[in-house]
């Protein structure tokens, strides 16, 4: 503001205006740039887009009953949702990740860097896909316009789904641009890392990532007449080849000025100190507990995912706050997924194998479905079964040997023949392998929380009467939208007591 005030008195003179512009150029603070090159914008776009999903998982981990609260608190594991639960799901897309893509694209066009434009479109598609899958209708056609429009309308989810596919197709085409036509390296490591922090400049992996996202989104349409399993299978074949292609980011030690770089599930961030694992997930892995999904079969992932001695609890029932402690901290913090310096997975090879299994099963290709289903189990076990000792808290995880994997795949927990294989087999193993990932909520909704597929889910004690015994199918609009875009939010009907139980567009025939 001071810059404009300094010029106000002389703005009537052309010569004076030129002088003022020169003065402002001299007084631009080089330590606070107002523009940046694409390679310095892309890391934040990627990391904040992934952080969008991290924050969502703080809510969905309870809805999907991977975790429950020890002390009932009229909260997420009892299906009591607030606008605050959704704020980061919305804000990290619109303000921190996709919201910065137009600026990066403008800079990339000037720099003749089409790979950056492609990455921007793919990440925007990822952000929008996640936001719409959690929230329903969201802005796009009037969004990302800055001061031109602070109150964009909400577009129908069907339209957002089409936009996501278009953005991914455009991103793929840009990533296929000949390298000679891209004048700014997609990944720069010296003098400091910038650019593509996800795949380090590997455009082929970006293309596979985009195809993986396309397959996931189209598989969400399983209730629609337009569902096309063959199209999904083609996309799966063009997506991840193995776990080295997984879209994920490594947590790191926070070194000033960085903060919040450790695991969202970890002990340092302290989001799950009052939580424990649900009986639902315990029964899938521990073949010796009452109600075990696979009696007599102890999953070798148990001591890795659930810290070995976790007892579990049901949502809304309540257990002593001092129970289920390991190393004097919540048992949750002792699991592989809660390592302070672990990873956050966006979409993985093992998820793609389960998508393949489901689509192949529905296409009548039972042999391919059985092979993909077993490959998904093997890939997940291999990934988390590498062992190692990790600090804070101090936990040593066992390895899972090839012999253990083979034994589990030959056990009663796994379908052995095409004739035996059912959707229940596929979806319950996918549920285990997708531990804590918000995408599991999409699967639960697609299959209507069906006890024939997910037999150990428990409707929580203390859930609001206004929900009528229904399960949540959407989050509420973010709190910032309620404050600053109230007319668009009101048009959604989000004030209804049962709003969160209303199916999304893709969740209906």
From TrEMBL:
Keywords linked to the UniProt accession: Lipoprotein, Signal
Top-level division of the source organism's lineage: Bacteria
InterPro entries per the UniProt record, alphabetical: SusD-like_2 (IPR041662), TPR-like_helical_dom_sf (IPR011990)
Gene3D superfamilies assigned to the protein according to its UniProt record, in alphabetical order: 1.25.40.390
Signal sequence range: 1-18
Identification of the protein by name: SusD/RagB family nutrient-binding outer membrane lipoprotein
Organism of origin: Hymenobacter metallicola
């Amino acid at each position: 503001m001071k810059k404009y005030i300094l010029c106000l008195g002389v703005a009537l003179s052309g010569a004076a205006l030129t002088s003022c512009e020169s003065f402002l150029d001299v007084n631009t603070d080089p330590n606070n740039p107002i523009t940046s090159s694409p390679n310095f914008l892309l890391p934040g776009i990627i990391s904040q887009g992934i952080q969008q999903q991290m924050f969502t998982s703080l809510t969905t981990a309870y809805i999907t009953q991977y975790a429950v609260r020890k002390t009932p608190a009229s909260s997420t594991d009892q299906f009591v949702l607030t606008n605050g639960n959704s704020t980061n799901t919305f804000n990290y897309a619109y303000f921190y990740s996709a919201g910065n893509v137009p600026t990066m694209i403008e800079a990339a066009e000037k720099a003749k860097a089409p790979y950056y434009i492609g990455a921007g479109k793919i990440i925007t598609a990822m952000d929008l896909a996640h936001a719409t899958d959690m929230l329903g209708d969201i802005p796009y056609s009037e969004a990302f316009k800055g001061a031109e429009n602070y109150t964009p309308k909400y577009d129908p989810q069907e339209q957002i789904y089409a936009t996501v596919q278009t953005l991914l197709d455009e991103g793929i085409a840009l990533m296929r641009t000949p390298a000679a036509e891209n004048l700014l390296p997609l990944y720069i490591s010296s003098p400091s890392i910038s650019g593509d922090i996800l795949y380090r400049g590997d455009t082929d992996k970006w293309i596979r990532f985009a195809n993986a996202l396309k397959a996931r989104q189209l598989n969400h349409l399983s209730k629609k007449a337009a569902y096309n399993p063959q199209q999904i299978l083609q996309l799966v074949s063009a997506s991840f080849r193995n776990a080295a292609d997984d879209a994920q980011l490594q947590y790191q030690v926070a070194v000033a000025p960085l903060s919040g770089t450790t695991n969202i599930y970890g002990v340092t961030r302290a989001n799950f100190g009052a939580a424990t694992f649900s009986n639902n997930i315990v029964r899938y892995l521990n073949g010796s507990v009452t109600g075990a999904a696979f009696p007599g079969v102890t999953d070798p992932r148990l001591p890795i995912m659930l810290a070995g001695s976790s007892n579990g609890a049901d949502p809304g029932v309540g257990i002593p706050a001092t129970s289920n402690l390991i190393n004097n901290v919540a048992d949750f913090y002792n699991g592989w997924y809660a390592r302070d310096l672990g990873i956050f997975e966006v979409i993985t090879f093992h998820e793609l194998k389960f998508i393949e299994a489901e689509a192949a099963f529905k296409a009548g290709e039972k042999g391919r479905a059985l092979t993909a289903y077993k490959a998904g189990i093997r890939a997940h076990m291999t990934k988390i079964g590498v062992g190692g000792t990790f600090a804070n808290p101090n936990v040593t995880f066992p390895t899972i040997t090839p012999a253990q994997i083979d034994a589990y795949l030959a056990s009663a927990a796994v379908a052995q023949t095409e004739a035996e294989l059912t959707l229940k087999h596929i979806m319950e193993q996918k549920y285990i392998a997708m531990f804590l990932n918000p995408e599991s909520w999409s699967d639960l909704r697609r299959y209507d929380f069906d006890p024939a597929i997910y037999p150990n889910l428990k409707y929580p004690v203390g859930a609001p009467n206004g929900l009528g015994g229904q399960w949540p199918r959407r989050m509420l609009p973010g709190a910032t939208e309620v404050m600053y875009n109230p007319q668009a939010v009101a048009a959604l009907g989000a004030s209804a007591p049962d709003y969160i139980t209303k199916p999304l567009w893709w969740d209906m025939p």
